[in-house]
UniProtKB/TrEMBL annotation, chains A, B:
The keyword Transmembrane helix applies. It comes from Actinidia chinensis var. chinensis (Chinese soft-hair kiwi). It comes from the Eukaryota. It is a multi-pass membrane protein. Belongs to the Casparian strip membrane proteins (CASP) family. Its main location: membrane. It holds the Pfam family CASP_dom. This is CASP-like protein.
Amino acid sequence: MASTTDDKPAPEPEKVAPPPEAAAPPMECAPRDHSVVADVVLRLLLFACSVVAVVVMVTSKQTEVVGRLPVAPFSPVFKPAKFNHSPAFIYFVAALSVAGLYSLITTVVSFLALLKPGYSTKLIPHFVIFDVLVLGIVASATGTAGGVAYIGLKGNSHVMWNKVCNVYDKFCQHIAASVGVSLVASIVLVLLVFLSVYSLSKKIPK
Amino acid sequence: MASTTDDKPAPEPEKVAPPPEAAAPPMECAPRDHSVVADVVLRLLLFACSVVAVVVMVTSKQTEVVGRLPVAPFSPVFKPAKFNHSPAFIYFVAALSVAGLYSLITTVVSFLALLKPGYSTKLIPHFVIFDVLVLGIVASATGTAGGVAYIGLKGNSHVMWNKVCNVYDKFCQHIAASVGVSLVASIVLVLLVFLSVYSLSKKIPK
């Protein structure tokens, strides 16, 4: 660089050297596009997780024999277990439905940003804000459903809450699968925030 | 700027004009410092919330008479309610302790960033990543404890889980206060992420 201080016109051809530097921005652009692609893929995954969690939770109904009538026909007494018997599971379904709807909308928006390069810069801060809000909702719903499901699995002898999973085995399998999938949804939301922050911090001049 | 192409020494004083432009960065710097101050204050608030939530939860022990001996002295039977009778509340204490320790460390780091202006640019992306992780932990712990506390408050007639808050009133008040404070901690974490993203997006050239 010190040689450029010479007063000869020779440095002019050296000024032509920048083409490799000018070629650099496309190289910088490529990973940015990759990150938008990853964003779309993660949002689709979040949508899939939300839908699966809601469907598995809602279809968890199981009817079992819990005893027999004490009088003549001694016919068996059936009792169903449904997700809407617990407010925790209702909250879970509501929260994951919100996450599913949100992921659907943001997938479309993120896909449109993929078609218009440069548009994502304005979009990312908004995405982070809403992603973090939805993460809070999904994480708390996962915790709520998981906490109640754990009591159903193990019971709590201190307050005489008996376990129910020994009777309603399929119901509990549905609940466990649904909570597991929503945990994956939480992790996907965390990854989405990481990706957005990575894209933002790359755009800050050093 | 076109006048600077003149070959007289007069343009030299014009070069002195930039000071207003050079003065602009401190004007840009001022809100950045404000956001770092807000960051430190929010982290202190997060620390206070975490400590209060843990202390209120841990000190929730209450012993009540739950019956009397069926034989001669008919002495009352005492039974304590403690937070560690429920795995959900143990998880809650663990999660809020982690959040408290994290907020203490990041308050110190953020305060040091306040003393060294310009250092925060490198720091913010890391802060966002860890804030989001801690938010996930605190939100899920709040959900877990809240879900179990709700069963204690209302019971669940479908699975014959009886309510306990009619007996252990002070215990339940402690749990409710603790869950409420941890909800505030979750909101503070969301605000911290918002603040960081705002600071990051301000540093991106238009």
